[in-house]
Amino acid sequence: MRLSGRGVRCVRGGREVFSGLDFEASSGEAVAVTGPNGAGKTSLLRLIAGLLTMADGSIDLWGGEAELTLPEQAHYLGHRDALKPALTVMENLCFWRDFLGGAGFDAAESLATESLATESLAAVGLDHAAQLPAAYLSAGQRRRLSIARLLAVRRPIWLLDEPTSALDAAGQSLFATLIGDHLSRGGLIVAATHAPLGLAARELRIGEES
């Protein structure tokens, strides 16, 4: 599987954020998108996820599921943890499992199961809090719950925006293990980050420091 962008141009609010951007990522590879604030790191992830429209250029996926679009094969983990406080941890995760469906590595993984949701919470260290309302979670726990979403529905492409924000050292170490496992399964990662991901990643720099 290969994700590539050629001559990508992004315009937001009438302002050109970046232009002529080329990038590439293959199965088993992580790309760290770096650059100063406002350079367009988040915008690039949102373009790949189909949440923004390109002003010019192309973004293509080779070797994915032919019947699925690129956004249907990608997880986008943004700055905000999209959780409903009144729902329990498990209810929040099951909502996203059902909403996202099961665009997996293969057809056999197309539907996430209750067992997988439970396993996903255990993988991020939240199985003990499954029946706790999300309102009671700390910032780090909320981030862990958002990360569990990546595991509850298998998708080969992870688009991560400052994924380790709010995580303590233990959480960062755990997340490094999870992304390493994802890459070992043939997944690929594009992450906008100011902090190390905890594993080798090719750098894609956007913009220049003033």
Number of strands: 8
* Number of helical segments with 4 or more residues: 5
Major sheet size, sense and barrel closure: 5 strands, parallel
Question: Class by helix and strand content?
Answer: alpha/beta
Which strand-content bin applies to the residues?
25-35%
Rounded to the nearest angstrom, the distance between the terminal CA atoms is 36 Å
Mean pLDDT: 88
Rg calc? 17 Å
- Low-pLDDT sequence parts: 102-112
Helix content: 25-40%
Order of helices and strands: EEEHEEHHHEHEE
Strand order of the largest sheet: 5-6-7-3-8
Q: Looking at the structure, what is the overall shape?
A: globular
Structure, described:
With 210 residues, the protein is of the alpha/beta class. The chain is 29% helix and 25% strand. The strands form 2 sheets. Strands 5-6-7-3-8 form a 5-stranded parallel beta sheet, with helices on both faces. Strands 2-1-4 form a 3-stranded antiparallel beta sheet, with helices on one face. The protein is globular, with a radius of gyration of 17 Å. About 5% of the residues have low confidence.
